[in-house]
Amino acid sequence: MADHLQIDYRQLRITVAHPRDQDGELLVRYLQRLGCQIELLWPPPDRWEGDAELVFCCIDAQTRTFCAALAEKGQAALIAIADPATPKVLQMLGEANAVALLMKPIEVSAILTNLIVARNNSRYQRRLQSKITKLEETLRSVRKVERAKAILMARRQIDESEAYAYLREQAMRKRVPIGVIASVVVETSEVLSEERD
User: Fold this and answer.
1) What pTM does this model have?
2) Which of 23, 11, 18 is nearest to 53 (CA)?
3) C-alpha separations of 35 from 28, 78, 102, 110, 174 in Å
4) What single DSSP character describes residue 177?
5) Which domains does the chain have, with CATH numbers?
6) Angle at the Cα of 158 (from 152 to 163), degrees rounded to 5?
7) What pLDDT score does 135 carry?
């Protein structure tokens, strides 16, 4: 629970998509006591246009479209609020892509725990997504370098190490990543081959 002491709750933007019943009021009052910035949405819209970091959402037939829109946008972490008596609640939970879960009736002690878990899971997922994006960019760059080396080897009648040395030298001379030089070689080759056709 040490992480909860490091959170500035006044900076947390939270959307609550829940009816204003006993559970909804309990949740809102607790989040207000923490000092969170709260937006109330009921009934939930079909599209997600908010900028909240966390969304507490009642899981039922009425929120299904909203949860799908939220998952598609991927911007906010969903904390599902489920009533075990709701028909097909497990199926809807699976579709909702929640990172934390509150069961009804809501217990005050579970709110903060789920808020911290959801926030940490969401940040971890964002870091992983950032790493995946960087790895994909690196892979694209490596593929460009390989294509550029093949082009240089064919055009200049040189071996692979000489082609790579040429690309590296040009990149260092122009102070750009080798992938940029490789892209120029590939694009130039494509333009020249189009002109010949």
Assistant:
1) 0.68
2) 11
3) 11, 19, 20, 17, 52
4) -
5) 2-106 (3.40.50.2300), 132-196 (1.10.10.10)
6) 50
7) 94
